[in-house]
Amino acid sequence: MAEAHQAVGFQFTVRPDGVDLKLSQEVIKNIYLSGVTAWKKKAIQFKNGVLTGVYPASPSSWLIVVIAMMSSLYTRIDPSLGMIDAIKENLPYKRCISLQTRAVLSAILFATGLWLFFIYLLRYTLKALLSYHGWIFESHGKMSASTKLWLYLESVRPLLDSEQYNQMEMLASDFKETEAAQLQRYLILKSWWATNYVSDWWEEYIYLRSRSPIMVNSNFYIMDFLYVTPTHRQAARAGNVVHAMLQYRRKLERAEHAPLRALGTVPMCSTQMERMFNTTRIPGIETDIVQHLTDRKHLIVYHKGRFFKVWLYTGGRHLLPSELENQFQRILNDTSEPQPGEQRLAALTAGDRVPWARARIKYFSHGLNKVSLDAIESAAFFLTLDEEPQGYDPAKPDSLDVYAKSLLHGKCYDRWFDKSFTLISYPNGKMGINIEHSWADAPIIGHMWEYVLATDCFHLGYSEEGHCKGDVNRGLPSPTRLQWQISAECQDVIEMSYLSARRLADDVDFHGYLFSEFGKGLIKKCRTSPDAFIQLALQLAQFRDQGVFCLTYESSMTRMFRDGRTETVRSCTSEAVAFVRAMEDPGATKAQRLALFLRAAEKHQNMYRLAMTGSGIDRHLFCLYIVSKYLGVESPFLKKVLSEPWKLSTSQTPQQQLNLVDINKFPKYVGAGGGFGPVADDGYGVSYIIVGENLITFHISSKFSSPDTDSGRFGQHIRKAMIDIQALFKPENEKRAVENGKYAHLENAKKHM
């Protein structure tokens, strides 16, 4: 054990003539360095706290104001309008202080008060300026509840026949005249009290109170580089990536990451980043909780059914990549067998939440099991050293599909799905991550992953043999096995969770598709938003695949608001439906189709802007529904709205730090994006990433158990829809517009964020 290894640094022997003490200089040195590191960290945190506390001013600006006030004492000019003299006369113990000292203290106190006044004035001024979102579109203002009801009715109009629409209109009208005002007043009250009236309820009721498995249903994944594998040595790649993650965590703790900005101008809320590391979802009978700890110094590694604890620090510093590689190689070389029940233990986190919560209370609340479970739940994050190689291989058409399923659910027992994220390392050097969704959304973990991949390849690097650079310190204590005492009864519970998770995983139909016919470069030359282009292609593909339109979900960020998370863009608009019908109508001309496309694209962009700026409808209706449940108010309208199935759920994976990798110089260093499981049993989940100028990667999921869906088929429909829409921009006499770039330029639509 690591504790035993450290204990040899202090030994004593009792002799007749006294006690003989032996101290290890190496251990004493490590203790000293650990203390120095801890105090440095506290000093940095104190410094950052001061800088944050006086933002947008700086400590030096206080000195400038004080010097200015002090100068006024000698120029006989009183900018305080008598306030300095008033302070001077009311100072405590003034009889014990000389007149000159009182004057100096009064000037300093007045200067400090003036400085604080200007800080708060600047803060509220900035808040007012940044709260203005009209710059996103030409006209914008606060929406009333009535307007949002109208927007909702508009969004469902293309999905309902006349009778169904009239019924929904009556429900909406009754809701407006009866319950709406009362529910809205409570929601306004919450908005005054809470920093964000949506996010806490969204986390609790959408994520934490769900009792179904989080594997597939909630967790999502992000892939490695698409074409490049920096080294084929598993331990080396894991060493570099883990070290890069520790660097990212240190910068996060020190508040050294540059703030993300919408369109490079408006800063976005970064609160979600605080729970990226040292975080675990803890199961409960009725609801889970998110446990976030600070300053965790170990990592849990899973390999071939065994759990290992690896310390991430030595001598007050992070382990170097070469040291981490050596530790991971020791685990790979370990030939010990799993303990009874250990191999599939993590299946508890993959199955239903209630059996896991009960098992945790009954079997893991005391003894060795509690100690080992605490080690997992308090770890910085979780690492799986997988046994089967994965990654994209052009020679294997289904390689991206298999890779995606491995990241999403693996074997159902080799990822700890409750950890904020599980890092997955494959024998061929490929990596990936599986992310628990309740604590944050995809752009948050994506920001970290972009930093890690760039640091791994362009800053840390590898030796010619593929090992991590640097000397190997073989004196580090070896990783230690976690110990378990898992009874036969507990093993039965584990097996039941595994079988439940296995059925869910086997039902996932995944298809990864690289669309390389054209990309963002050509779409932008068509003077339209790439996101709107893709969303309309998805509507066309959905109609060709199913023969009907469906309620469509696109995720939009709301992080321009404090603690903001997401809002829904309802992509299936009346304008999109009109465009799709024109594309399927042999009698429609190209000009008619193009005009309808432009109208639908502009509508989509406007809907996206509304969602981003807090004028979406779904989160508002969701919160009204929660208030109604608290008050015991039955609302047929809200019940109907919240029960509507999203048969097409979509999301774009954003690229946030384009400065980290020059894609023009390194075209092969592009990410493959990530994906998620299907939201509806008879629907599709589609995630896509726009990579560079000429590639769009689609991750498509559905269920084998649905006779109406087929992810591979839907991928072909997407390809055909993309090409058909692009053909609308080709001149009649041009047969190869994609290759030579000669296409019409249309009226500009504002760039998607």
Automatic annotation (TrEMBL):
InterPro entries noted in UniProt: Carn_acyl_trans, CAT-like_dom_sf, Cho/carn_acyl_trans, Cho/carn_acyl_trans_2, CPT_N
Membrane topology (UniProt): Multi-pass membrane protein
For this protein, the parts annotated as crossing the membrane are 103-122
> What pathway does the UniProt record associate with this protein?
Lipid metabolism; fatty acid beta-oxidation
Choline/carnitine acyltransferase domain sequence ranges: 152-719
Q: According to its UniProt record, which reaction does this protein catalyse?
A: (R)-carnitine + hexadecanoyl-CoA = O-hexadecanoyl-(R)-carnitine + CoA
Lipid metabolism recorded as keyword? yes
The record's Gene Ontology biological-process terms are:
carnitine metabolic process; fatty acid beta-oxidation; long-chain fatty acid transport
GO-annotated cellular components: mitochondrial outer membrane
Which Gene3D superfamilies does this chain map to? 6.10.250.1760, Chloramphenicol acetyltransferase-like domain, Choline/Carnitine o-acyltransferase, domain 2
Cite the entry's keywords alphabetically. Acyltransferase, Fatty acid metabolism, Lipid metabolism, Membrane, Mitochondrion, Mitochondrion outer membrane, Transferase, Transmembrane, Transmembrane helix, Transport
Give the UniProt subcellular location, in the record's own words.
Mitochondrion outer membrane
Q: Where is the active site?
A: H437 (proton acceptor)
- Which residue intervals define the domain Carnitine O-palmitoyltransferase N-terminal in the entry? 1-47
Per the record, the similarity remark reads:
Belongs to the carnitine/choline acetyltransferase family.
The protein, known as: Carnitine O-palmitoyltransferase 1, muscle isoform
